[in-house]
Structure formats: C-alpha cells, structure tokens
Amino acid sequence: MPDTTLLSETTLFAGLGPADLDTIATLSTDRDLQRGDVIFEEGGTPDELYVVVSGRIAIANRSIDGRESMVALMEPGDLFGEMGLFSGRGRSAEARALEASVVTAVPYEPLNNLYQGDPSLLWPVVEMLAGRLRNMDEALADSVFLDVTGRTAKRLLELAGESDEFFLPITQEELAGMVGASRERVNKAIASFIRLGWIEQIDRTYRVTNREQLTIRAR
Predict the structure, then answer these.
(1) Distance between CA 13 and CA 130 in Å, rounded?
(2) Is a pLDDT exceeding 80 seen at residue 211?
(3) Nearest CA-CA partner of 173 in 181, 183, 163
(4) 97, 160: one domain
(5) Is 190 helix (H, G, I), strand (E, B) or coil?
(6) Which range is most confident: 50-54, 59-63, 120-124, 166-170?
(7) Are residues 103 and 155 in the same domain?
(8) How many domains, in total, are found in the chain?
C-alpha cells in the first residue's frame, strides 16, 4: 500500500483525516517507471492523479511539428494530473518520466465521493489551484521580461536548488523546452556562464561557482 505520510504532505490531501487517507491509499497503487515511460498523453481520458514518490516527471506540450515545451518539472512530493478530476476534460499535457521514477496513482472515484460528502474538503483544492495559477503567471512574466539567457539562468538555479553542485536530470533538448527556446540558444547561454566563471560543467554535472551573479542574471 502506498505511503499515507507522503499523501498527507501534499496540499490536496493535507486536510484529510487518517481514515480517509487510509481509504485513498488502499485504493491507490505505486508504479515503477523508466526514463521515457509515458504516464499519460495529451488529450487522453483522465481517471486518476499522481504523486511523485521518487525521480522526476516532465509535464509537456507538443506543437504540430513535434516541438516540445516543458511546462513543469515534478519532483518527489509533487502532485499532478488533478485537473481532470474537476474539469471532466481530456489531459491538457503529456506526462513522462525523465529518469527511473516511482509515482503513486490515485483514482478519481474515491476523491469524488469524499468531496461530495464534505464540500469543505475542497478548500485545499482551491489553495492548490491558486498555486498553479501563480506559477503560470510567473512563467508568463518570465517569457515577457526575461531573455533566453535570463530564463536559462533561472532554470539552472531552480534545478540546483540549495546545492551548488547538481546533476542535470534532463537533456539539453528538454532543458531548451523548459526555457522555451532552441537548444542552440540555450547551449550558447550556458557557454557564456562557463566563460564568465559563474558555473562549471563536466558532462551533465554542474557546479555553481558564482550564485550571486547567476541570480542577478535570472532577474
């Protein structure tokens, strides 16, 4: 049975009592994924949401000509795939594993039953969706006010987190999708950071050597 502690730490399930969490966990399943495994496709019929146990999951859209835009990167503790629970429409994006990962799949039906029985449980849903809107507003602002170099700096800092040394969990093409630019332009931005002494790179391992300047460039 999936870990109820992990479920209780997500915004969506934070207000549920132990009995409700146990019910959801009993009806949920953990799924092992390898890099490239597709969890759901854009336009697919939704019937469950997911919580990342380990690894990383990309949420992406594709253009008609096959170009990809990575709209979100899901890491342990993150929840995704919930929109269909409330809209009843098809999946708005594709979800796939960027590395060996484990996700907990939670069916919609028991959640629908909970919300219908006690609508006050929907307040965490409002909080979660408000957070999604804030993230979308920030991404839109980045696309307007930051150039490719600034967006690249920001994404690298996000991937690094609090650590100065980090392994890039995605390919250059996938990073370009997150930045919203061509791979060539993103590579050029990274090369400029290396030349300036802000980061060091060995294969896919990076080390931030001047976080202050990289942060300034990301604004």
Answers:
(1) 15
(2) yes
(3) 183
(4) no
(5) helix
(6) 50-54
(7) no
(8) 2
Distance in angstroms (rounded) separating the CA atoms of residues 157 and 92: 27
Sign of the dihedral through C-alpha 167, 2, 44, 77: negative
Residue 30 has pLDDT above 90, yes or no: yes
Residue 91 carries which DSSP code?
P
Check whether residue 99 and residue 195 sit in a common domain: no
DSSP string, 99-134: SSEEEEEEEHHHHHHHHHH-GGGGHHHHHHHHHHHH
User: pLDDT band at 177, cuts 50/70/90?
Assistant: confident
60 and 109 belong to one structural domain: yes
What's the CATH code of the domain at 205?
A: 1.10.10.10
Structural tokens at position 198: 């802000």
Q: For residue 91, what is the domain's CATH number?
A: 2.60.120.10
- In angstroms, the CA 119 to CA 17 distance is 15
> Does 169 score more than 80 pLDDT?
no
Q: Is residue 201 part of a domain?
A: yes
Which residues on adjacent β-strands are paired with residue 30? 104
Domain around 171: 145-217
